[in-house]
């Protein structure tokens, strides 16, 4: 039944009808009472499934393998599975995606769940019915049971695994619900309760008026079990949700298997699985199984589906001539399972076969699938039968059920009286369609407008309250429920159909209901006849009558018909009996035999065998080749009679006609429609010779088919040559079926491999080539393309051959590939980076993305954090172990092969968190009633500290300190705890809190005793000598004073006759400083002498001493006389240097002689000069060292400009002096004792003799003149 006909495009060539001719909505049951035993039939013409149903589900009555079409022999009703598999079709099966209630449902396997007695403790029975392949699913199923059923959705194969438990009408039919049951919590024995947490119902409904029951043992009910993500639902056939459960807990179970169980009664279950055959080949499948026509016709039904551009053709073939097509129907655009059904016209052959032809207009993704191919009955009537009494259910939307039990046969509506006695039901169904003999004793119950009506077959009735139909009608009555009366002229009237064995009073007919009538004794005269007309003359008016009372005023006319026809045609002209008349009959067919007779027009008769007839055959011309015309396409040809010859030629194309086509093509076939020959399966662009023989007549015609679809190209090979080019080559097709035009190459994107993404819409690009190769350029890198190649003649394109090929990966990183990095989420210890999506077509290959958070804050310098990912497979990464409350800048590096790009992104700051413990907590001062503590803020900072909290464990209460910087130590916080007990040991705890979050950090503790103790030593004691040989002493306030500092004592100890100098610095609290200084006049201290400085603080007790040990610098070295220039020439200057006049043997002496020069001094000059310049900030860079003398003690003379050797002196580099040039000569004398030095610097000017090379004075060294004769002591490390 084509319930979805409006969704299917059907091309029909020879199809009689798609509608049932008998009736609509037939559904009834029949009980046959026979000697061989009762037979029960359930009959329908609906496409919905039929099923026997009984109250007791323990006994399965549904095991018949589907319904059978009436009047179709049982051994011919289906195409054999082996037959279709043997022709390249593959078998498949899967769970249906919708609830199936059509006739396919009848063949779905029944699963039976047994049960144990409610009082027993036997093992419960669980049946696994389905293994699932995906996390989300839709499973349609049918259930027949009562009162309760159970479904388990488990991750294992038994209920001892993790399961969702659906309880349907449980607790004696009162409640339905869902449980979530971990491993080993579902009971496997009767009368055992589930364990916690399985015992608790996650969701439940109580059955009543709001939630009616939905299971029944007396009818099948249909459901859809759906799982979508974490939600599982049970939905009724009408779409109403019965119950559902969404698992929002941390651990959701994976569902791999479905198990079932029933309680208190057996349960019958069907999982709606479809079993089908499929192929992906365009082909012709010829089934060798013979089909026998029913009433001269073939009816075929099947379920089909196919691709968008696919077609499927069902063809009925003459079994004795495979090229002779008797009927065919084509379907296309059937994307969902749909039942089709077609019926041929009367075919006149006893043996036919079936072929299926699959065809596809496209070149890829073609597929066809078929279910349930079988021969059907013209009126669509199907039946199931049983030897056991049961109710019958029609799986319609309202699940109608018909019962024979206790239903008394009563009179039917008047419509029943119109049915022949050989039929049953109000739809007049012939009994011989399903019962071998006559109707016999049948009881019929049917659903008529939702009302159950029961009656007996013709000739029988119920008797004395018996509900069965085994009593014959009373004599003189017959028909359905004995409502008809036999004719009074009938002898031995049959109680079934009213037929008579003999008639009285000259009546005629099987029921003696035809009164006597007159007719002509002789046939009319055939005066003449031609091709399409004949002249008939009536001039013999002798009548045959059954009565002497004949009215001579009768009128008459003539009737005619073809010899093979059943019905007569009246001539419209009527004449009185006794008047001769010539009747002209027109519009006859040439070469056809006709019968003609004359009748009395006042009487209509059914006695064709007693009225005399005459016959004739119209003329026709023997056919010739010129009488036919041929019209050809690329694969078909149509041979038909020319229009002007239709009315004259003899019938030529008959089933006996021998048709021969050369060249012989195995795929070709033909079929006849009247005087038209249809030829299919020809090759395009080819000349064919057609020979048609019928008896002694031969017709020969030649024709050429038009250009057709070229063959597909072969051996298409594609190869990537760059990241944007693919070369494609192929073999030229064997048959172009026309004149060659070019090759068409089309390509489109299948998938961007870098991001494994298939575009929703991909533009197809087409190029042409006259050569069997082409280079495709400007392609996206690392992209998979579908490349199709087809040949094209001047009219049509061939089937495309398709390959897939990807371009190469790119090495170089292009700007359009770079995603933008942005902060997705910032925490105190981590930051989540998200990279934007780059269009897949822009990506040449995956990128390694190295993301670095560069610390911009001083407490985490060189502590960068990095992580990497592969883009675009991953688009987010997390940088862990970043510091809180810290400024970072993102640096993103993109790597691929040997290429790299670095992008600096925006800076960001991490969030705050609770602070660390405070640093360096100590007691810096105390007395008998107070403790002063000092601490550094938490470091590194994790936020802005807004509060410190101080606790004394020995005291109640908390002291909150907001900001209390130390006077002496600016980087510290200080606080004094007062009013404490004397000589009490206290534990001080201190913690800090940031502005955000509102939580304190860790505590730091320190202990102190409330009494004054000696101060620790002052830190950072420093001693420096002044130019006057005084000593500047500096020190810092003691970190741990242990009381109020009242004074500092400074002691200077040295080796001399005095030996020691004491000094005191008295202070009050208001005079406290971070650093203290004191200058001690020590002119009496000998030079080059060791000394010791000792400092201690006094808070009432002498504190620990800090000391500093060093030596005094040597005396400033002096010459006995200042250096003098004793001689000057044009290229030399002679300098006289006397010996030292204050020589001390403990010291070492060194002399340097420098002369001005344009070139700067080299870095290899003596280190003493470099230290001198560094310490005092003077520059000797324009003086070149000429002489360096160690252990200088005696007078020496130096000649500058000449390489003369000087004792104990190293001439580093002498210079060439220029005539008439002024030079500055510097002498540096250095005296050193241990790590201290003093020096004396002298400077002289000299002018070489002769004319100057340059008249300008060289003033480059005038800046040094201020040093002349100035005594400068220096000491350095």
Automatic annotation (TrEMBL):
SMART domains: FN3. It comes from the Eukaryota. Keywords: Membrane, Signal, Transmembrane, Transmembrane helix. Residues 712-811, 917-1015, 1017-1124 form the Fibronectin type-III domain. Residues 1-23 form the signal peptide. InterPro entries: FN3_dom, FN3_sf, Growth_fac_rcpt_cys_sf, Ig-like_fold, RTP_Phos/Ushers. The chain crosses the membrane at residues 1257-1276. This is Fibronectin type-III domain-containing protein. The lineage of its organism: Eukaryota, Metazoa, Ecdysozoa, Arthropoda, Hexapoda.
């Amino acid at each position: 039944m084509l319930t979805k006909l409006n969704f299917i495009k059907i091309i029909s060539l020879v199809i009689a009808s798609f509608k049932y001719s008998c009736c609509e909505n037939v559904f009834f049951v029949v009980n046959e009472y026979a000697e061989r035993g009762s037979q029960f039939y359930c009959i329908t013409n609906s496409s919905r499934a039929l099923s026997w149903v009984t109250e007791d589900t323990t006994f399965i009555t549904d095991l018949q393998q589907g319904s059978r079409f009436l009047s179709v022999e049982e051994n011919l009703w289906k195409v054999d599975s082996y037959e279709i598999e043997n022709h390249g079709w593959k078998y498949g099966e899967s769970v249906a995606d919708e609830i199936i209630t059509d006739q396919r449902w009848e063949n779905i396997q029944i699963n039976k769940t047994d049960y144990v007695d409610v009082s027993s403790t036997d093992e419960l029975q669980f049946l696994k019915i389905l293994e699932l392949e995906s996390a989300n699913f839709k499973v349609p199923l049918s259930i027949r049971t009562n009162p309760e059923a159970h479904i388990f959705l488990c991750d294992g194969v038994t209920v001892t695994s993790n399961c969702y438990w659906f309880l349907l009408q449980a607790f004696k039919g009162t409640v339905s619900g869902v449980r979530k049951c971990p491993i080993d919590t579902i009971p496997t024995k009767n009368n055992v309760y589930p364990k916690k947490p399985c015992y608790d119902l996650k969701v439940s409904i109580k059955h009543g008026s709001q939630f009616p029951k939905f299971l029944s043992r007396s009818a099948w009910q249909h459901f859809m079990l759906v799982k979508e993500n974490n939600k599982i639902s049970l939905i009724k056939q009408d779409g109403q949700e019965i119950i559902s459960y969404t698992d929002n807990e941390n651990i959701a179970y994976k569902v791999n298997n479905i198990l079932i169980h029933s309680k208190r009664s057996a349960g019958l279950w069907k999982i709606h699985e479809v079993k089908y055959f499929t192929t992906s080949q365009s082909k012709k499948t010829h089934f060798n199984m013979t089909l026998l026509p029913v009433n001269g016709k073939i009816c075929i039904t099947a379920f089909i589906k196919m691709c968008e551009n696919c077609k499927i053709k069902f063809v009925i073939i003459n079994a004795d001539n495979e090229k002779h097509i008797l009927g065919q129907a084509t379907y296309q655009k059937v994307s969902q399972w749909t039942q089709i059904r077609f019926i041929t016209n009367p075919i006149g052959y006893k043996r036919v076969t079936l072929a299926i032809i699959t065809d596809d207009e496209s070149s890829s993704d073609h597929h066809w699938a078929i279910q349930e191919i079988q021969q059907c009955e013209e009126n669509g009537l199907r039946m199931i039968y049983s030897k056991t009494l049961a109710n019958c259910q029609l799986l319609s939307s309202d699940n109608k059920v018909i019962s024979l039990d206790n239903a008394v046969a009563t009179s039917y509506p008047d419509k029943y009286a119109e049915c022949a006695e050989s039929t049953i039901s109000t739809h007049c169904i012939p009994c011989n369609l399903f019962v071998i003999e006559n109707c016999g004793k049948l009881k019929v119950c049917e659903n008529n407008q939702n009302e159950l009506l029961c009656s007996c077959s013709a000739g029988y009735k119920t008797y004395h309250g018996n509900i069965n139909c085994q009593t014959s009608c009373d004599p003189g009555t017959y028909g359905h429920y004995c409502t008809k009366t036999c004719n009074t002229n009938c002898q031995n009237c049959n109680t079934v159909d009213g037929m008579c064995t003999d008639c009285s009073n000259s009546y005629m007919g099987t029921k003696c209901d035809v009164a006597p009538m007159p007719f002509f004794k002789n046939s009319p005269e055939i005066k003449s006849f031609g091709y399409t007309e004949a002249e008939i003359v009536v001039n013999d008016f002798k009548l045959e009558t059954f009565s002497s009372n004949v009215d001579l005023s009768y009128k008459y006319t003539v009737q005619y018909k073809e010899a093979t026809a059943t019905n007569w045609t009246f001539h419209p002209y009527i004449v009185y009996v006794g008047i001769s008349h010539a009747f002209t009959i027109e519009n006859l067919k040439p070469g056809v035999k006709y019968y003609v007779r004359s009748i009395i027009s006042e009487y209509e008769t059914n006695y064709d065998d007693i009225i005399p007839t005459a016959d004739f055959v119209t003329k026709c011309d023997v056919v010739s080749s010129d009488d036919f015309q041929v019209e050809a396409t690329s694969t078909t040809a149509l041979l038909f009679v020319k229009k002007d010859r239709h009315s004259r030629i003899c019938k030529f194309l008959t089933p006996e006609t021998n048709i021969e086509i050369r060249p012989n093509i195995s795929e070709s076939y033909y079929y006849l429609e009247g005087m038209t020959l249809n030829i299919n399966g020809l090759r395009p662009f080819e000349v064919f010779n057609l020979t048609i023989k019928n008896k002694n007549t031969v017709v020969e015609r030649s024709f050429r088919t038009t250009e057709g679809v070229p063959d597909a190209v072969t051996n298409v090979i594609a190869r990537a040559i760059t990241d944007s080019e693919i070369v494609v080559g192929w073999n030229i097709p064997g048959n172009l079926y026309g004149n060659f035009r070019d090759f068409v190459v089309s390509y489109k994107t299948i998938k961007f491999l870098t991001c494994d993404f298939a575009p929703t819409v991909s533009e197809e690009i087409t190029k042409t080539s006259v050569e069997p190769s082409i280079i495709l350029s400007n392609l996206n890198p690392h992209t998979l393309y579908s490349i199709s190649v087809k040949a094209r003649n001047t009219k049509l394109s061939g089937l495309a051959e398709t390959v897939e090929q990807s371009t190469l990966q790119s090495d170089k990183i292009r700007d359009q590939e770079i995603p933008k990095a942005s902060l997705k989420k910032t925490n105190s210890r981590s930051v989540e980076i998200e990279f934007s999506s780059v269009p897949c077509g822009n990506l040449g290959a995956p990128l390694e993305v190295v993301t670095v958070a560069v610390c911009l804050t001083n407490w985490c310098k060189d502590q960068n954090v990095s992580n990497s990912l592969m883009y675009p497979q991953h688009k987010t990464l997390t940088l862990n172990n970043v510091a809180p409350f810290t400024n970072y800048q993102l640096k993103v590096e993109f790597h691929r092969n040997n290429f790299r790009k670095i992008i600096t992104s925006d800076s960001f700051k991490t969030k705050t968190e609770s602070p660390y413990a405070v640093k360096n907590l100590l007691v810096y001062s105390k007395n008998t009633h107070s403790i002063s503590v000092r601490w550094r803020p938490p470091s590194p900072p994790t936020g802005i500290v807004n509060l410190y909290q101080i606790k004394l464990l020995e005291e109640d209460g908390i002291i909150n300190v907001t900001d209390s910087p130390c006077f002496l130590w600016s980087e510290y916080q200080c606080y004094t705890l007062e009013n404490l007990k004397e000589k009490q040991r206290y534990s001080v705890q201190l913690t800090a809190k940031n502005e955000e979050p509102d939580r304190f950090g860790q505590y730091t503790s320190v202990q102190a005793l409330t009494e004054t103790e000696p101060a620790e030593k002052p830190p950072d004691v420093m001693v420096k000598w002044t130019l006057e040989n005084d000593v500047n002493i500096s020190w810092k306030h003691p970190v741990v004073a242990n009381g109020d500092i009242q004074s500092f004592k400074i002691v200077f100890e040295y080796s001399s006759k005095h030996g020691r100098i004491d000094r005191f610095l008295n202070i009050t609290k208001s005079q406290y400083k971070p650093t203290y200084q004191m200058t001690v006049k020590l002119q009496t201290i000998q030079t080059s002498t060791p000394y010791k400085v000792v400092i201690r603080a006094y808070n009432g007790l002498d504190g620990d001493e800090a000391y500093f040990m060093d030596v005094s610098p040597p005396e400033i070295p002096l010459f006995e006389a200042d250096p003098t220039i004793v001689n000057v020439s044009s290229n030399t200057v002679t300098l006289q240097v006397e010996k030292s006049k204050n020589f001390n043997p403990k010291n070492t002496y060194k002399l340097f002689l420098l002369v001005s020069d344009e070139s700067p001094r080299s870095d290899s000059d003596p280190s003493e000069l470099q230290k001198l310049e560094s310490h005092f900030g003077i520059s000797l860079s324009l003086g070149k060292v000429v002489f360096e003398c160690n252990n200088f003690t005696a007078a020496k003379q130096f000649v500058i400009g000449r390489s003369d050797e000087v004792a104990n002196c190293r001439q580093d580099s002498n210079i060439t002096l220029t005539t008439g040039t002024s030079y500055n000569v510097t002498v540096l004398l250095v005296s050193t004792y241990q790590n201290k030095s003093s020096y004396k610097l002298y400077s002289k000017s000299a002018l070489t003799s002769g004319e100057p090379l340059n008249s300008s004075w060289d003033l480059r060294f005038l800046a040094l003149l201020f040093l002349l004769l100035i005594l400068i002591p220096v000491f350095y490390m």
